[in-house]
Amino acid sequence: MVPRGGGHSNSSRPPSAAQKMAAPGVAVARAPARATSPASPLLIAEAPPALDRGGGMRPRRSGPAAACPSVSVVFPGAVSRESCCRFACELLKHVLHQRHQLPLPYEQLAYFCRRAAQDGDVIKKPPSMDLASKKCQQVLMELEGVLQHLEVMFSLTLVPRVLILLGGSVMSPKELYELNLEGICEGSAEESLKTASCVRKLFHSLFVADVFSELKALPVMGTVVMLQGHRDCGVDWFRPKLNYKVPTRGRKLTVNLSCDGDINISASPPQHMTSTWEDYVWFQAPVTLKGFHE
Length: 294
Prior knowledge:
There is one protein chain. 30% of the residues lie in helices and 19% in strands. It is an alpha+beta fold. Strands 1, 4, 5, 6, 7, 8, 9, 10 and 11 form a nine-stranded mixed sheet that branches. A two-stranded antiparallel ribbon has the order 2-3. β5 (161-166) and β6 (175-183) form a beta hairpin. α2 runs antiparallel to α4 (127-156), α2 runs parallel beside α5 (195-209) and α3 crosses α4.
């Protein structure tokens, strides 16, 4: 449908809109790690365990040659562009909370900050509480700005991939979370599945995969959002990164979304079949989201 590669270096053509995954459902996929590459004890401690064939738990190997875990979710029908945007926004908020960059889930934090701001008009607070409230409001304001610009980006172009980069730099982050939307068959609001049910299915899959529970807590660090879009989409907030390559080091989780079931081919726009790989490039959000601890 749309390019998998970083930038426009790949000249192959994307799959057609009619292509779907072979079997619907939820799966946690991982290719076997090479036995000749010894695992780092630190990285093993940070990575979540996986079920082996006998039902026991085995550690995941790490390092440049180690396989990256993935969670695959197959929706039983077409999905709207608005739903794809919602997937990206909700995953960003979820990762920030699960990786200890937000002390509470986004909605709860926004509620308490708004209430604290209202109370501050009539109740004088200690300096420490006032500073914490200001930090909280700053973090939320920056995050809400990114979420709003994500909505604009999705309205301008197909977005095949989204990256959430924690710590380090965009070339070498400490952790990387990828949302892969290449398998999505996009339809109109009338032809598509309900957004709420798709979001529930996505997060149920993440819960079953249990990808966060065994990870060590992270200190406060910066988070950068990157995403692929058409080079001529006209976006002016995200900055194009024409030669960007997705990092291969650091801990990575890929969430693959696709559609299956009874899908009307007309539900998928012509862009899925006519766009070429080199038409899509990486864009980077111009702000770094700072973590916040209470």
